[in-house]
Amino acid sequence: MNTTVIFSESLNTSSLDVVVIVSVEDGIGFIEKKLLLHVGKDIAGGIVKECNGLSYGKIRSFRTIATDGRLIKVIIASAGKRGSATRANIEKLGGYIYNAIKAKDAKIGIYNDIETGLELAAAYLASGLLLKSWTFDKYKSKPETQKISAIECKTCYSELNRDGFSFLESLADCVSLVKDMVTEPANVMNPDQVLEIATSLKQLGIKVSVLDQRDMEKVGMNAILGVGRGSAYPTYLIAMEYHTDKTKSKIALIGKGLTFDSGGLCLKPATKMGEMKGDMTGAAVVIGILKGLATQRAKVNIVGIIGVTENLISEKSLKPGDIVTSMSKKTIEIDNTDAEGRLVLADALWYAHEKFAPKMIIDIATLTGAIHVALGHEFAGLFSNSDRLAGELEKSGKIVGEKLWRLPLNPSFADDIKSVIADIKNVGSGRGAGSITAAMFLKEFVPDEIEWAHLDIASTGWDSRDRALSKKGATGFGVRLLIDFITRYYEDNARGDSVL
Ligand code: BES
Ligand code: ZN
Ligand code: ZN
């Protein structure tokens, strides 16, 4: 279990081992007032002097003697200039504070009634603590790090923040589910296991339907079936519907669910191949979003569709040069068996439109290594046929601190994926812009009248370094982003002035 955050009216000053005070850059008066509840005037004065003008994200830690003679730790964390706080930077600050706290610090209290001018600052801070507290040690005989079991938060906005926090707490829970799914090795998080998790959403009122191999053969989904041919596991296309209000326009979310991507016959190099257990991140994010919306009983009309399979090698595997006919009837020449995600998505996108007639489609996928070259770990690639949809997604990215950068979908790139003997081929001619040609390929399977966005999270869903709100490995990128977008979309939609 992750850390629990408890909101309380007053911190039990006499038993705290660690006192954390969140303040703004010039908030030494506040720091001193809180310190005096724990330490004498001289110590408080000394600490205050050290913390004058501390800029955003800076943390100072002191070991000192409390008024009752116990040894305590005082941590001062700066939320930056008064009035500069945002959800994104306060959540991150929560992550930084979590890092400064050790599990052996048994009783931790945080004063977070900071003068940032941000009403939900305390809730955001607590959300950051929770997100950062995720651990995965089920395969360790002896856990390496002792977990912090509970953190008490004292805030003067308690009512409001407690409510705000319960929403953020359920979001953190969904992010943890995604991190868990992505971190599980491929021999555990196999297609059957993903199906089991998706099916478990039924208990939240989500309708789950599954196309198995035979169903997919009937409708001609030879692109996704081709990818799965090398695997001993079945291939699934899973649809998860959650509609509490059918009068509202429907959004389809599509996720790439490769529980392992070896590259197929175009085998990947051994270095880092293990990270390809995370090639189902898009599918996990879609599951996480559905779970989050259903837990909150959000008024939405959503369908999540995930294509779940493995890209392995067998005598049945796709071969370079093979041609498959997708569900859309477009024929695809397989130039590279490692460009399998777009094949899975091609059939999932077409199915979404044929079966569910959504107004909007957003797909999320660990699609190309090239997106790392273009944007690194800080921004996910955003592609869209709609300026307004792209703008709103970018806005959500800024709100939650999961940033997006839009790249072009220019018709000039289409030439790159023309095939000599089929309608289209699955990779570009090697003239660069690999993430764009991948997106251009997907565009072929989305009717123009549907507003569509594609998020390439290959370099943001997984990070080889610790981040503000995640450990080395899975980040859960996309859940908070898309839940923010969806929530704002349907709220505005209810007032009859849709954001789009
Ligand atoms: N799953 C990979 C993309 C990926 C790479 C995700 C690194 C996460 C980290 C995808 O299926 C893939 O292999 N793409 C190829 C495409 C190429 C063959 C055109 C790639 O990016 O190399
Ligand atoms: Zn691949
Ligand atoms: Zn892949």
Structure explained in plain terms:
Helix content is 34%, strand content 21%. The protein is of the alpha/beta class and 500 residues long. The chain has two domains: 153 residues, Leucine Aminopeptidase, subunit E, domain 1 (3-Layer(aba) Sandwich); 315 residues, Zn peptidases (Aminopeptidase), CATH 3.40.630. Helix 12 links the parallel strand 14 and strand 15. The longest helix is centred in the middle third of the chain and has 26 residues. It is elongated and about 80 Å long. The chain binds ligand BES and zinc ion (2 copies). One zinc ion (ZN) binds next to strand 9.
What keywords describe this structure?
single chain, 2 domains, 500 residues, 8-stranded mixed sheet, Aminopeptidase, elongated, 19 strands, alpha/beta, binds zinc ion, binds ligand BES, Leucine Aminopeptidase, subunit E, domain 1, 6-stranded mixed sheet
Sheet with most strands: 8 strands, mixed
Q: What share of residues is helical? A: 25-40%
- Whole-number tally of structural domains: 2
The CATH topology annotation of the largest domain reads as: Aminopeptidase
Strand content: 15-25%
The distinct bound ligands, ions and cofactors come out as: ligand BES, zinc ion
CATH architecture group name of the largest domain: 3-Layer(aba) Sandwich
Structural class: alpha/beta
Low-pLDDT runs:
none
Secondary structure tally: strands: 19
Q: Whole-number average pLDDT?
A: 94
Q: Gyration radius, to the nearest Å? A: 24 Å
Oligomer: single chain
Number of distinct helices: 14
